[in-house]
Amino acid sequence: xxxxxxxxLSVINAGLERFAEPLAARRKPVARCRWQPPAAGDAALGWKxxxxxxxxxxxxxNKIAYERYLASTPLLAGVETAGAVIPAMQGRKLLLHSGxxxxxxxxxxxxxxxxxxxxxxERWADSPEAAARMAENGExxxxxxxxxxxxxxxxxxxxxxxxxxxxxxxxxxxxxxxNFNEGLGKVLRFGAGGxxxxxxxRWMGEHLAPVLQKTLxxxxxxxxxxxxxxxxxxxxxxxxxxxxxxxxxxxxLAPAALAGNVADEKELAAAFGFIAGNDHFFLxxxxxxxxxxxxxxxxxxxxxMLTVMARNGVNFGIQLAAFPGRWFQARANYIEGLFFxxxxxxxxxxxxxxxxxxxxxxxxxxxxxAAPAIVQFVGGSTDDALRNTLAMKAITLGANSAxxxxxxxxxxxxxxxxxxxxxxxxxxxxxxxxxAHKEAGVGQIGAGLTTAPLPCFTAAVEALYEEVGNAQ
Length: 472
Prior knowledge:
This protein is α+β, with helices and mostly antiparallel strands. The protein has three domains: 2-35, no CATH class; 44-69 and 297-469, CATH 3.90.1700.10; 72-288, CATH 3.90.1710.10. Helices cover 38% and strands 20% of the residues. The chain is built from 17 helices and 18 strands. The protein is globular.
C-alpha cells in the first residue's frame, strides 16, 4: 500500500465526470471513460439485453443482414411518375408522407402544408382549406413513403403525378423511389404550397423529368456507389452536403444529354441550369440508394440491425431487419443547430423527414468526418465532425469499405446500426438535418444536429427478446 500511495497514479474514471474533476484540478492525468448503466438503468431491460448480447441466432442473422446490405448494388435506372411505379396510387387519391404512419389530425404544420400543396398540384383541391377538408374527411388517403419502397425528404410528400428517381439493385432487381429535389427557399418539402411552388413542381414534371428520363435512357443504368464514394473523398457526406455529388452527376448527365440531342437548346439550358443551381439535387438520389441497400437487409429473422430511421415531425420511428414493416416509435427530438436570422428554437418543428435513411446506411452524420465543412451549416467544429463519426463505431456492426473516409485513413464509414449496442452504450445515432418552421409555408429556418430517441431502441430490444431471447 505504501508503494501504491507514493507512486505516480494512473487513473481511469468510468462514469460520472465529477469523480475526475478533483484529480484534474490538481493536474493529475485522468483517462475519462464514458460509461452509463445499460438500458438507461432499467434493470429488467438490462437483464433481457444481457440475454441478447452474443446470442448465436442474432449474431448469425446480423451477419446475413449486414452482408446483404454490403452486397447491394444500387443503379440509377430511370425516371418515372409515381402513379406508374407505385401500384397503390393507381386510381386512388393517395399521398405518401415521410416518417412512420400518422393521421392528418396529428400531423405537424409543415407536413400538413405539403399535403395541401400536393393536393393542389394534383388539382384535387383549389385551395389549402379545400385540401384540408378533403384530408379531414378521408377523401385524400395518407400513408408512409417507406410502406411503398419510397423515401421523401422533410415533409416527404409524394403525389401520383410527381416524377420519381428509380433506383434498381443489380443484385436482386428490387427498386426504390424518391421524388426530385426542389432546391432551397419556399418548397413543398418544407410545407410551402404557394403559386411559385406549384409552378416549379409542374415545370419539374413537364420539362425537367422528360429531359432526365431521355438522358438516362442514353447513358444506361448508372452505378451509384462509386459516385457516392468519390463524393465522400471530395468533402460531401451525401445528406446535408451534396455539392460534390451533384457536380459529379452533372458531369455524367450533361454530355450524354448533349450528345443524344434529348431536347432543344432552351429545354436543356433550363434543365441543367436548375441542376447546377441546386447543390442538394443529388440528395434524393442518395436517399433512394440508401433505402435500396437497407431493403436488401430487411426480413432476416432475429437480426438486430436497423433498416429504417424516419421521422414525421411528431414521432421518430425505426425498423429492424428482423421485423420488416414494424415500427418502433417515440417522440421526435428537436434539433440543435444554427438558425437563419430572425428565427430561434421557439419557431422550429421537431425532427422531420425520411432523409435519416442516409445515417441508417452509414452516411450523413455517420460520415461527417468526410465533410468537415458541414459544420458551417449545422454548427459545431471540425473536431466535432470527426468525433461524431468515431462515436458511431460503438453502435455499428462494421465499416463499409465501399464508403471510405480520408480522415479515418480511408477506413470505411461505420454502418449497420445494432439496436442492442445503442441500448447497451446509451450512444444514440447522430443525424444532421435541416430545420423546418413549425408552421406551414414558412420553410427552412436553419440546420443542425439531433439524435434518434432511445425509447425506439428499448422497444425494439424488448420485441427482439420476446422473439429470440428465451432460446439460447
